[in-house]
Amino acid sequence: RTSSVSVVLYKGKLGSQRKQSHPYSPIHRSCCTMFGGLRSSSIFVVVAGLSLYVVTGEHLMNSSCSGEDRPPILSYHIHVLFMPSNRNKTMAAMNLQRAFGREFQVKENCTFDAGNPMPEKKNICQYEVDWVPAGPFPTAQYSFFVPTAHFFNTVPWIMQHRGDLDILIHPNSGCETEDHLIWPLWGGHIWELDPSIFNCEYPGCTVP
After folding, report:
1. CA angle at 110 for the pair 108 and 111, rounded to the nearest 5°
2. What pLDDT was estimated at residue 60?
3. I need a surface site. Which of 4, 33, 36, 70 has the fewest CB within 10 A?
4. 110 pLDDT more than 80
């Protein structure tokens, strides 16, 4: 099976907007290079500065995120996913949230965007519950921000206490696509995430 590949050069720094196409005007395009074994019907290779970006459908990947030198992990998120229409799962999820908070003395809500790795933050905090699909998640979920120093305490605990709930643990490096799709840990069912929502795709990238 073969797919067409387009090479596009863009002016300026490459970025993406939530649920929108790229706002940058192409200055050159060449196509009809053929590769076999590719799942996407069209793949765009985008050169911006010294970085190579690969866009498949709506998803952006940056060569500086997946090159030989991997970006440093700046923090982690622990997500608990559940179906809000299932009363037992919802009660279990809320009980787990309270138990985690007691175990690790979580006393504050996160007041920064979930896309910000916040390496300077030393304490665990929790985000509000999303009762409807939000961000890349197709169902209800809540999450905890976990500094790297707390990884080896929190991750074994949540895995052993999750019951039959579904858990996603992913790093925050600034490379959101890799963080969520390539480098995560799952406990329970693996949910399909929507990567088109991601804004950051280079090491250390932060969302205001």
Report:
1. 115
2. 58
3. 36
4. yes
pLDDT at residue number 200:
86
List Cα–Cα distances, 186 to 35, 191, 204, in angstroms.
32, 9, 23
The whole-angstrom separation of Cα 171 and Cα 51 is 22
Please count the CA atoms within 13 angstroms of the CA of 59 that sit on its side-chain side: 14
Residues shown for the chain? 208
Report the half-sphere exposure of 101 (CA within 13 A, side-chain side): 16
Residue 131 is which amino acid? W
To the nearest 10 degrees (0 to 180), the angle between helices 87-103 and 151-161 is 150
Residue 137 sits at φ, ψ, to 5 deg, of -95, 135
* Contacts for 22 with CB less than 8 Å, ≥ 6 apart: 10, 14, 15, 16
Per the CB < 8 A criterion, the answer to whether 152 and 146 are in contact is: no
Start-to-end CA distance of the chain, whole Å, equals: 42
Single out the residue of 168, 175, 169, 164 nearest to residue 152, CA to CA.
169
Instruction: Outline where 123-208 has alpha helix (H).
Output: 151-161, 176-181
| Consecutive H or E run containing 88 | helix 87-103
Provide the token pair at 91: 């009660």
CB contact at 8 A, 184 and 166: no
Pair of tokens at residue 176:
């959101």
Q: Considering only CA atoms, which of 91, 106, 182, 188 is closest in space to residue 150?
A: 106
